[in-house]
Write a structure and sequence with these properties.
- The protein folds into two domains: 163 residues, Lyase, Ornithine Decarboxylase, Chain A, domain 1 (Beta Barrel), CATH 2.40.37.10; 248 residues, TIM Barrel.
- 29% of the residues lie in helices and 27% in strands.
- The strands form four sheets. Strands 3, 15, 16, 17, 18, 19, 20, 21 and 22 form a nine-stranded mixed sheet that branches. Strands 4-5-6-7-8-11-13-14 form an eight-stranded parallel beta barrel, surrounded by six helices. A two-stranded antiparallel sheet has the order 1-2.
- It starts with a helix and ends in a 14-residue tail after the last strand.
- The structure holds pyridoxal-5'-phosphate.
- Pyridoxal-5'-phosphate binds next to strand 14 and helix 11.
Length: 429
């Protein structure tokens, strides 16, 4: 069996050969009770991921949950209860994070297109900005001046060179994200010299779905070295260093494993060599904390043969789990899709797609799966990140799926299922 699939099943506590269970409850029973399609999150897996990452990174590194990966209130709250901080990228995420119990003043706010209204709200909340440009720093200063309240600002830097091993790089070249290295001194001087701004430190985020732990550590080491050089050159102190994250999760057949122990070891050495009283170290993670905890369940609606191939049509698809259909990926590869009655079995080849009127709505082409009949339930594993909210769920106006969290053997709805009449919401004739 594919290693990534095996790992994803093991993560959910599933033994080979038995019907899929999530948090101890049969996937079929979850669909019977809560409908289909359905997202399910296992709280135990979320907590375990946080514990494993914190143990690997050591006690000096604070872990920030990247809310964008899954802005579910229940997921965010579960992670917070386990000790994560949070970083946000919109006012909507500010609402989620504070509703989940994060003090606003402890949040970090990244993103290259913060509007003046968002900046005003961020200043009022007392959070720390991860500023992406000199222009944005000017806007934060103006907002702080207007409100009479000082604003904390860390500079997101765009380092030359690549973060190796990342599937989607977000730095190392001309970019909307972060301040180019040669411009950092001027931006830092502006912050340090402005009476309404407080220089917090530096932030970097090189890319997502990184599978090369050594490359992450090298990248983080470069940030730390630059930080020391700039402190010396500019006579400032960077009390916060956010080393980024982007640790990869195997979500497609053939994906490798991220070596958390190696990343943790490297970060601990780096921190140890560069620590000082009052300094705060951060790593920010989305996918790595929540992807393995989530499963997307969908039901077979129709089967047919065409052109010598077997096709299975589900009640869910690209509009609800776009990433599994290849959206955002450079190379389209099959997700970890299984028959819930027998997740380890392989049988006939079948093409699995959703109900949308586009050929893009396809999860697997000629995948080896046990025979699927109408009413059978399939599962996409490692689906806890960049799921529903990463997907164009208004396309074709299907009702959005419910989300359920399983904890201590009980399932509860944490996002209500939509209704077909949601398609009219906010519209005027
Ligand atoms: C600034 C920033 N931080 C954190 C993340 C979360 O990345 P991941 O879910 O890969 O951990 C992203 C994702 O795009 C990001 O842009």
């Amino acid at each position: 069996m594919d290693q990534a699939l095996q790992d994803a099943l093991r993560e959910l506590g599933n033994e080979t050969g038995s019907p899929l269970r999530i948090g101890g409850i049969a996937a079929r029973d979850l669909v019977a009770a809560h409908g289909s399609p359905l997202y399910v999150f296992d709280a135990d897996v979320l907590r375990r991921r946080v514990r494993e990452v914190r143990a690997a990174l050591g006690p000096r590194v604070e872990l920030l949950w990247s809310v964008k990966a899954n802005p579910s209130l229940a997921v965010t709250r579960c992670l917070r209860d386990e000790g994560t901080g949070a970083e946000i990228a919109s006012l909507g995420e500010l609402h989620v994070a504070t509703a989940a119990g994060h003090p606003a003043a402890e949040l970090r706010f990244a993103g290259p297109g913060k509007t003046d209204a968002e900046i005003d709200a961020g200043v009022a909340a007392g959070l720390t900005f991860h500023a992406e440009s000199a222009d944005e720093v000017g806007a934060i200063a103006a907002a702080a001046d207007r409100s009479g309240r000082a604003a904390r600002v860390a500079v997101r830097i765009n380092l030359p060179g690549e973060l190796g091993g990342s599937r989607l790089r977000m730095g190392g070249k001309s970019s909307r994200f972060g301040v180019d290295e040669d411009r950092v001194p001027a931006v830092v001087r502006t912050i340090a010299g402005h009476p309404s701004l407080r220089l917090a430190g530096l932030h970097v985020y090189g890319g997502t779905q990184g599978f090369d732990a050594a490359a992450f550590v090298r990248h983080a080491s470069t940030v730390v070295a630059r930080s020391a050089a700039w402190e010396h050159q500019l006579g400032v102190a960077f009390d916060e260093l956010d080393l980024g994250g982007g640790f990869g999760v195997a979500a497609y057949a053939g994906d490798p494993r991220f070596d958390l122990a190696a990343a943790g070891h490297g970060v601990q050495e780096l921190v140890h060599a560069n620590d000082r009283p009052g300094r705060r170290w951060f790593v920010e993670l989305g996918r790595y904390l929540c992807a393995p905890a989530g499963v997307y369940l969908a039901t077979v609606v129709r089967t047919k043969d065409s052109g010598g191939e077997r096709h299975v049509v589900l009640d869910g698809g690209l509009h609800q789990h776009a990433a599994a259909a290849g959206f955002g990926a450079i190379l389209r590869r099959p997700p970890l899709l299984v028959h819930t009655d027998d997740p380890c079995a392989i049988g006939t080849t079948v093409t699995v797609g959703g109900p949308l009127c586009t050929s893009a709505d396809q999860f697997a082409e000629q995948a080896a799966l046990p025979p699927l009949a109408n009413g059978d339930v399939v599962a996409i594993l490692a689906a806890g990140a960049y799921g529903l909210t990463f997907s164009p769920h208004s396309f074709l106006s299907h009702a959005t799926p419910a989300e359920v969290m399983v904890d201590a053997g009980r399932a509860r709805v944490v996002r209500a299922r939509g209704t077909p009449s949601d398609s009219l919401r906010g519209q005027a004739p």
